[in-house]
Design a protein that fits this description.
12 helices, 5-stranded antiparallel β-sheet, 279 residues, 434 Repressor (Amino-terminal Domain), globular, Beta-Lactamase, alpha+beta, 2 domains
């Protein structure tokens, strides 16, 4: 059963402690509100201001699990706070760990300050949860995929166009790396997991995947330096730094180039192109 009063009070308290800079918003010179405004939270949660306002006013329909997940993410709730939110709304909290998609507040705070840098937050299966605008300019919008295609490893074996972004000399290594990484996750999560389902799909649809899967390679880690072939700016040699959230098995990937290098100049050009495209 939904606890409308408890839900409303909890939402108000979380909104009032969040500051604009905590969520990547400008403060502005005339702000008098404690914390965020309702319309700002509604935007962060991808819902109408009216819908969100009714929840704080103990009115409106019982929110769905999708709405609750969106609110938890928009308010930068911790996992414990997210679970509390779900219980107040009379629902069971989502699973944690490898299958969870709730991004931790700490990871989001770092991500929100990286818009001028190619960066993304991905799951252990290579599913993109967030991208900076420059990240979209680098790899395209990889949050748009649905179903198994959300996984970069799945797309690698099923969509030839994906490989065009990566230097050809890297392809054999990446093929082995994706198969090796998926095998490790299948072993970790077990039969019936999403990882096992992806492996079954790939075994049924890709001869190449079956070949590398049968090699049983384990422990092939990504190279620190990645070589991209961008359709507009050309070859890019980028260092990839990875920050891992162990509670949710999410990774924040940040791509940088050596200052003064040709790749650095091209990355700066890409940032400009991406900004112009978005506007």
């Amino acid at each position: 059963m939904i606890d409308r009063a408890g839900l409303a009070e909890f939402l108000r308290s979380r909104r009032e402690v969040l500051q604009p800079e905590d969520v990547g918003l400008p403060r502005g010179p005339r702000r008098r509100t404690n914390g965020l405004r309702r319309e700002e939270v509604a935007t962060l949660c991808h819902m109408s201001t009216d819908y969100y306002s009714r929840l704080e006013q103990e009115r409106g329909p019982r929110p769905s699990s999708q709405m609750l997940a969106s609110i938890a993410q928009g308010l930068h709730l911790s996992l414990d706070e997210r679970d509390h939110l779900f219980r107040l709304a009379g629902q069971n909290p989502p699973a944690r760990g490898g299958v969870g998609e709730h991004i931790s507040p700490g990871l989001l705070r770092i991500f929100d300050r990286l818009d001028d840098t190619p960066a993304e937050i991905v799951t252990e299966l290579g599913e993109t949860l967030r991208q900076t605008s420059t990240g979209v300019a680098l790899t395209g919008d990889t949050t748009r995929y649905t179903g198994p295609a959300r996984s970069l490893g799945y797309r690698w074996f099923t969509d030839p166009a994906v490989r065009q972004l990566y230097a050809p000399e890297e392809h054999p290594f990446l093929t082995r790396m994706f198969a090796s990484g998926l095998r490790e996750i299948v072993t970790l999560r077990g039969p019936g997991s999403r990882a096992a389902h992806l492996a079954d799909l790939l075994l049924a649809h890709s001869d190449e995947f079956r070949r590398v899967w049968d090699a049983h390679e384990i422990g092939i880690r990504p190279h620190a330096v990645k070589h991209f072939i961008h359709p507009e700016v050309g070859a890019l040699e980028l260092t990839c730094q990875r920050l891992v959230d162990p509670d949710q098995a999410h990774s924040l990937l940040v791509y940088t180039a050596i200052p003064g290098s040709e790749s650095h100049d091209r990355l700066n050009l890409l940032a400009v192109i991406g900004t112009q495209t978005l506007h």
